[in-house]
Design a protein that fits this description.
transport; mainly alpha; transmembrane helix; cell membrane; EmrE-like; about 0% strand
Length: about 100
């Protein structure tokens, strides 16, 4: 259950990043409110996961989910460049996430 909460928190973090971008400097009320709701949700889920998981592993995995997810969303939705090096480093990050998950007890 803790790993599920961690993944949910990472996905909510990506959604939060999108909402912050869409809030346009917090000038758009609906997106601004959504960003605060998503922020509270991902912090809650992360906190619950950290009750069980080791902090170093959990935080590294959570950060990786957020980073990779944000880059993918940027490429797919916001048409940011998908260069070889960006894709390479996404693959390296994903392999680190998987390695951390497999090596934790």
């Amino acid at each position: 259950m803790a790993w599920t909460l961690l993944v949910v928190s990472g996905v909510l973090d990506v959604c939060w990043a999108i909402s912050v971008k869409m809030a346009d400097g917090y000038s758009r009320l609906t997106w601004s409110i959504l960003s605060f709701v998503l922020l509270a949700a991902f912090i809650y889920a992360l906190g619950r996961a950290l009750q069980v998981l080791p902090i170093g592993t959990a935080y590294a995995v959570w950060t990786g989910i957020g980073a990779v997810g944000s880059i993918v969303v940027g490429i797919v939705i916001f048409r940011e460049p998908a260069t070889f090096f960006r894709l390479f480093w996404i693959a390296v990050t994903l392999s680190g996430i998987v390695g951390l998950k497999l090596s934790s007890t």
